[in-house]
Design goal:
Keywords: ATP-binding, Carbohydrate metabolism, Cytoplasm, Kinase, Magnesium, Metal-binding, Nucleotide-binding, Potassium, Transferase. This protein is of the alpha/beta class. It is about 35% helix and about 25% strand. It is built from nine helices and 13 strands. The strands form two sheets. It has a nine-stranded mixed beta sheet, sandwiched between helices.
């Protein structure tokens, strides 16, 4: 089986700061680094590091040689990433001493994928493969429709939250993944949460898998000392899908995903901080 991911690819600019800047404040950073990021790329790297065969679908600019090389180094297939004249998406990320962050996002080439690109990329997908989607690219609804028509299992991260995007993608979604803030926004916008398989992540409080029947599978978070929480949700989703793709049960997949996210937040960075399958296995054994 395989995981196909229509997702963003960003260059992250990460600044360690004594506290998150207030409006109008000029703040000296304690350190600066760049790395691979974007919710899509993060999820692709997480799934590939967890052992899945991953094909990333997206778009980057002419400045993305290093980013594409990093994706390939992590085991992510990049043949379906289109190189364009539009700058690669990037994020400016500030991280404080408590590992909380604030992010400014420039989408860039992430808004260029279209139906034709998705159809071409998914021509080799097989029934039962996974299709991952987030709200940082164009063509999510088209991709979700194509994926369902071809028998793929569509997993949708409703982030960054946009109720119009959710309305378009949800009819073709097999599994909806949100953090608790996004779940509250969806409830407020729609009045009720649609009867679809969904996962709600709650940070240090763990995660819950809700079935349409009302059954809830709860998995606690592992206690760790966080360094940087950027990309933790993406790490969880990538590892979850990789585990499900490998045939693990829901409780097993949720537990591995929770362990992976716990490891990831103890490391600086997003895509660069994703653990591999051996890391997760050793963590669970310990």
């Amino acid at each position: 089986m395989a995981v196909w991911n229509l997702g963003s690819v960003n260059i992250d600019h990460v600044y360690q700061v004594p506290h998150l800047p207030a409006p109008g404040e000029t703040l000296a950073a304690l350190s600066y680094s760049t790395g691979l990021g974007g919710k899509g790329a993060n999820q692709s790297v997480a799934a590939a590091r967890a052992g899945a065969v991953v094909h990333h679908i997206g778009a980057v600019g002419p400045d993305a040689d290093r980013v594409l090389a990093r994706l390939r180094a992590f085991g992510v297939g990049t043949d379906a990433i289109r190189i364009t004249d539009t700058p690669t998406g990037h994020a400016i990320i500030t991280v404080d001493a408590q590992a909380e962050n604030a992010i400014i996002l420039f989408p860039g080439a992430n808004l260029l994928p279209d139906r034709d690109q998705v159809e071409g990329a998914l021509a080799d997908a097989r029934v039962g493969d996974f299709l991952l989607l987030q709200n940082e690219t164009s063509a999510q609804a088209e991709a979700a429709r194509i994926g369902r028509e071809r028998g793929l299992r569509v997993v949708y991260s409703a982030a960054p939250f946009d109720v119009d995007a959710v309305r378009e993608v949800l009819p073709f979604t097999n599994l909806l993944v949100m953090n608790e803030g996004e779940a509250a926004q969806l409830q407020a916008a729609l009045g009720q949460v649609p009867p679809v398989e969904r996962i709600v992540t709650r940070g240090a409080k763990g995660a819950e898998w809700h079935s349409p029947s009302g059954e809830v599978l709860s998995v606690p978070a592992f206690r760790v000392r966080p360094v940087d929480t950027t990309g933790a949700g993406d790490c969880f989703i990538g590892n979850l899908v990789a585990a499900l793709d490998a045939g693990l049960s829901r409780p097993e997949a949720m537990r591995r995903a929770s362990a992976a996210a716990a490891i990831q937040v103890t490391r600086a960075g997003a895509g660069e901080a994703m653990p591999d399958a051996a890391d997760v296995t050793a963590f669970l054994q310990d």
